Amino acid sequence: MASTQVDVRADVRVRTDALRAFGIEAFAKAGLAPEGAAAVIEVQLEAQLRGQPTHNMGGVPGYARRMQAGHINTRPNIAVVSESACHVQVDGDAGPGQWVSVVAMGHAIRKAKEAGVGVVAVKNSQHFGAAGHYAWMATQADVIGLCTTNGGLVLAPWGGVTPTFGNNPLGVGVPTGTAHPIVLDIAMSVVAQGKTSLAIAEGKPIPLGWLMDKRGRLTTNPADFAEGLGVPIAEHKGYGLALIMEVLAGVLTGAGFGHDHAREGARGSGRPPESGHFFLAIDPRMFMPIEEFRARADRMVAMIKASERAEGTREILIAGEIEMRNRASNTAAGSVPVLPSTFRALREYAADAGLTTDLTPV
Amino acid sequence: MASTQVDVRADVRVRTDALRAFGIEAFAKAGLAPEGAAAVIEVQLEAQLRGQPTHNMGGVPGYARRMQAGHINTRPNIAVVSESACHVQVDGDAGPGQWVSVVAMGHAIRKAKEAGVGVVAVKNSQHFGAAGHYAWMATQADVIGLCTTNGGLVLAPWGGVTPTFGNNPLGVGVPTGTAHPIVLDIAMSVVAQGKTSLAIAEGKPIPLGWLMDKRGRLTTNPADFAEGLGVPIAEHKGYGLALIMEVLAGVLTGAGFGHDHAREGARGSGRPPESGHFFLAIDPRMFMPIEEFRARADRMVAMIKASERAEGTREILIAGEIEMRNRASNTAAGSVPVLPSTFRALREYAADAGLTTDLTPV
């Protein structure tokens, strides 16, 4: 028992292929089509490889339970509703958002390769995981990628207290030459709700500035989480950005938006979220040879890395740099660190669902 | 003299057509081609009509002086370098950024109308004024518009103290039905440098959080402005956004970026800024009839306006709403309020340059 307690209080490392097999087994048992299971697990596993504390393998049990409960369509017809030289409109048929989004970003990249730019609007989808994944996909195809989504309500308009926007993220990826690709993935709140709930799950205090209570007052009380509000970055600026993301992902796509969605905390309620996503891909070759663009992006990165440092700063970092380094070292190791609370949840789900994949830490 | 002092301590109202005539006379005298003079003045005057404290008519003397000094090309060949179904690359030939940008956003809108989306990259341009203007232009053409620019260096990477990015703004416009168009115009710093220098010009204190000294420490000392740094919104998030804007406006366009530019305060030095701009227009009709999009945008606005208010909030505002209301009332009045420091600067310039336009307040 002592050793188990040590296990679950510190990060454990688990083999990447074991996590992949676990996820695919879990989703197969939940009825998800094999192609979808592979896509969703790849998105969640990539977040784990990048060391993202949220949107990683910890989400798998929840997704599998929602599939089993019929809240996610496990046999969706992910359909092209309309298409032109530079756009695709996709109906996700209530399938897993990650699967829908891998398909959708693929369309955007293809259009960008063919026409220079691709705009893809997705309706009738679900939570798509980490925005950074699709931005990163674009960089791997030598195009600039941008994406956002809406979903469960987290943010109120500035000055208001009625939840009206998802914690809508912005993902942007920029291909580079020898530097790590630039991958920005930021939510329009000070911290992602997942980080707050993770802090609660890990028994850590909620820092002041992360959460507002239902009256719009800053709070550190975990009890305020269920009915509380996220704090938009930079006050009216974060509110304005969240509004634009809601327009791009919801109003423009034909998806639900604003009050069409339930609160984030009510995600398991079974109410169809009708989430929408927006993907944009831009091929730099419209403007210069790709080698020139890569060299210019590398030069931008080099300028930043060479910045004189403020007192107390050890290293200037580029958006996504830590994540790309984590990915490289975890991929080389063939295993990834898993948070104790996540590891517990995976093992509990495996026991509940009767999964056979061996999740023993390395 | 007493009455003059009263005049210059409170806002004065000046007739819109007098301000327009003043600007056109100033630019004509500085050698600017008539088409360019009309474009630049319209952009600056619209900012005045919207009640923006910066990027308005107060900038006219500085632009005219830079034209006279040969730092802005008054007879530019604003040229299309490359073009496809959905993109245009523009060389601004060191002309006034507003003129170049009105042309460029026009290209983006035209492409969006023809192909669904238009991406326009501009190199070899100069300061383009208020980003919101071009976003608003898009809304008037029933398309979603997005723009950004780079320019004189204001921001350091997070953790660093070397100025590496302009105070790169993001402008986004969304057409609506009966509601005011949504027009977001935000800089990636807590406040625009123009607001800080305006506070200094108006003899007001600089609030803590607006400015960092050259070592990256927050300061309220106006003496730190010349060598100081802007404060990025939301720390690493604002830094990440500024980097993406620098990529879109600079790296992608073929313009100068990062250290290619001088510090913002050195703008008058004569060093060609080689600024770049990025414009994107998206036609919602790719995804639904425009009437449906307008109705959905109106519904989004109505949800926000109906939000329960936090204590102390009188009204929930939409991005650009105050500005659109100002524009409507100032347009109806035929005159606009002008800040005392701005009014003084205009009259001083008129006297220096021997302009004949009557700027007597109404």
Summarize this, please?
With 362 residues, the first copy, chain A, is of the alpha+beta class. Chain A has helices at 2-9, 16-29, 34-49, 60-68, 97-115, 131-140, 193-201, 236-251, 290-305, 321-333, 340-353, and strands at residues 12-15, 79-83, 87-91, 117-125, 144-149, 153-155, 165-166, 169-174, 182-187, 211-212, 218-219, 229-230, 275-282, 335-338.
Give a verbal description of the structure.
2 copies of one chain form a homodimer. Chain A is an alpha+beta fold and 362 residues long. Chain A has 2 domains: 90 residues, Orthogonal Bundle (Hypothetical Oxidoreductase Yiak, Chain: A, domain 1), CATH 1.10.1530.10; 208 residues, Ribosomal Protein S8, Chain: A, domain 1, CATH 3.30.1370.60. Helix content of chain A is 40%, strand content 18%. A 7-stranded mixed β-sheet of chain A has the order 2-3-4-13-5-8-9. In chain A, strands 11-10-12 form a 3-stranded antiparallel β-sheet, with no helix packed on it. In chain A, strands 1-14 form a two-stranded antiparallel ribbon. In chain A, a hairpin with a 3-residue loop joins strand 2 and strand 3. In chain A, helix 2 runs parallel beside helix 4. The longest helix of chain A is centred in the N-terminal third of the chain and has 19 residues. The first copy, chain A, is globular, with a radius of gyration of 20 Å. The N terminus of chain A is likely disordered. The interface between A and B is large, with 74 and 74 residues.
